[in-house]
Specification:
- By secondary structure, the protein is α/β, with parallel strands linked by helices.
- The chain folds into two domains: about 200 residues, Rossmann fold (3-Layer(aba) Sandwich); about 100 residues, no CATH class.
- The chain has twelve helices and eight strands.
- The two termini are about 20 Å apart.
Length: about 325
């Protein structure tokens, strides 16, 4: 990873009457523009996200999507759809006078990167995508209902505790009703459970430090869970279940690197493999010692290696 750096520019872009999104630029003001798309939905950006890119070469642009991070209003689900986020990216690209940019995204960020590229292929220099997710029903069921629960039965048992057994046939819907309801204790309980489940399943070895930080950041976890559940319960507002994979012909000409952890529990490896077969000319890297998180060393190293190869596009 490159050294941590401070932004040379930050701002709030008003993208609707309701929403304003936070953005920042760091690195080389005149460099190769790259936009970082964070995960979740709802997770926001961190200072670490700048460090995947050589700051001497890249103009590094981070965005907190609607309702997340420093964007306002926090955890707002009104006027918050995938298509709103795509339009926000275009508004920001135009504001920053960028013709084309490299698009980098992991997990939900890979979903956004693919959707944006399919909607605006003429604005994408290259795609770097990690932890591939296309929001198909089988992927959602795998993580929230039946699948990951077979690998982490102990953690899953804790995850569903806030939900009565009579509602567990639809875990996503049950969490959504509580996260968007008026019972503040239920919101906190669901935010806590959501965060613990995410952390328990994210890495090859459980991040005990992150687990220990949940109580101190409980309001943030409620915010993340609310936005994420909003997108999950609405299947990311896609028009068809296989919309992303069925439209890859639109991006076949774009230089693309696909990076995925072999043992990614959150985003099943099957999806990355299917995308690889549909885009055979794209680079495909299946990391043998990787889970979901970029903090797993193999994923971290490969992502930096790939961003270095796209420096001078």
């Amino acid at each position: 990873m490159y050294p941590d750096i401070e932004p040379f520019s930050t701002g709030m872009l008003k993208v609707s009457e309701l929403h304003s999104i936070y953005y920042e630029e760091s690195g080389n003001k005149d460099g190769n523009p790259v936009v970082f798309l964070h995960g979740g939905p709802g997770w926001g950006t961190t200072t670490r996200d700048r460090t995947f890119f050589d700051p001497k070469v890249y103009r590094i642009i981070l965005i907190d999507q609607r309702g997340t991070g420093k964007s306002t209003p926090a955890a707002e689900i009104r006027e918050n759809t995938t298509w709103d986020l795509v339009n926000d990216m275009e508004q920001l690209r135009q504001k920053l006078n960028i013709d084309k940019w490299v698009v980098f995204g992991g997990s939900w960020g890979s979903t956004m990167a693919l959707i944006y590229a399919e909607a605006h292929p003429d604005r994408v220099k290259a795609l770097i995508i990690r932890g591939i997710y296309t929001f198909r029903r089988r992927e959602l069921a795998w993580f929230y209902q039946d699948g990951a629960s077979f690998v982490f039965p102990d953690a899953y048992e804790e995850f569903v505790k806030p939900i009565p057994e009579t509602e567990r046939y639809d875990i996503i819907g049950a969490f959504y009703r509580r996260l968007t309801g008026n019972d503040e204790k239920a919101k906190l309980d669901c935010g806590r459970a959501w965060g613990i489940w995410a952390i328990m399943t994210a890495r090859l070895y459980i991040d005990q430090h992150a687990l220990g930080q949940i109580e101190q950041n409980l309001e943030s976890w409620v915010q993340k869970a609310t936005i994420e559940c909003h997108y999950v319960v609405n299947s990311a507002f896609l028009k068809t279940d296989d919309q992303i994979l069925s439209n890859v012909d639109k991006i076949r000409h774009i230089p693309t690197s696909i990076i995925h952890g072999r043992y990614d529990i959150i985003c099943p490896t099957e999806t990355a493999w299917q995308l690889h077969k549909l885009l055979p000319d794209a680079e495909f890297h299946l990391i043998p010692d990787g889970g979901h998180s970029t903090k797993d060393k193999g994923l971290e190293e490969k992502l930096v290696e790939v961003t270095d190869r796209y420096k001078y596009l």
